[in-house]
Design goal:
The protein has a single domain, classed as HIT-like (HIT family, subunit A), CATH 3.30.428.10. It has helices at 5-11, 55-76, 124-133, and strands spanning 18-21, 25-29, 39-43, 80-84, 99-105. It is globular and about 50 Å long. Strands 1-2-3-5-4 form a 5-stranded antiparallel beta sheet, covered by helices on one side. With 137 residues, it is an alpha+beta fold. β1 and β2 form a beta hairpin. Bound molecules: guanosine-5'-monophosphate and zinc ion (ZN). Zinc ion binds next to α1.
């Protein structure tokens, strides 16, 4: 992908601070960190979002997230870590090459990941679950 900033980072054409790399994934420091140590796991192959992700690569992401998460926690002494991932502009995605955020959390930090909770009518959640489930391929 010619105009993709993460493809350029993967190719080494744009420099980055690399934490970890293997045949499928590269983990780098986010250039605009939400908190100290904010890392992003980037797939080497260009997938726009999770909907396009190959199963083979998908299997590896969580293992790397776990390993890097432990390393972040050990090194930074953070209280916890948010693993999060945005798909589509509406969901807050700004770079359209699949990546996963690892955001170390510290007491009193400036990170807010919040929503106002809603409520289902009686039976609505079950009906919705069944309709969604029937679409799984
Ligand atoms: P998104 O908003 O798509 O979930 O996340 C994109 C992330 O990529 C943002 O957190 C942003 O700070 C990070 N980012 C954008 N451009 C660069 C860059 O050139 N280098 C690095 N290391 N991170 C970047
Ligand atoms: Zn790309």
């Amino acid at each position: 992908m010619d105009n993709c900033i993460f493809c350029k980072i993967i190719a080494g054409d744009i420099p980055s601070s690399v934490i970890y790399e293997d045949e499928d994934l590269k983990v780098i420091m986010d250039i605009y960190p939400a908190a100290r140590g904010h890392a992003i796991i980037i797939t080497k192959k260009h997938f726009e979002n999770i909907f396009e992700l190959d199963d083979d690569v998908a299997k590896k992401v969580l293992i790397v997230a776990k390993k890097v998460g432990i390393a972040l926690k050990d090194e930074l002494g953070c209280g916890g870590i948010n693993l999060l991932q945005n798909n589509g502009e509406t969901a807050g995605q700004t770079v359209f090459h699949l990546h996963f955020h690892l955001i170390p959390r510290y007491d009193g930090d400036n990170v807010t990941i919040k929503w106002i909770t809603g409520k289902y009518e009686d039976g609505e959640a079950l009906e919705l679950a069944q309709r969604i489930g029937a679409r799984i391929k």
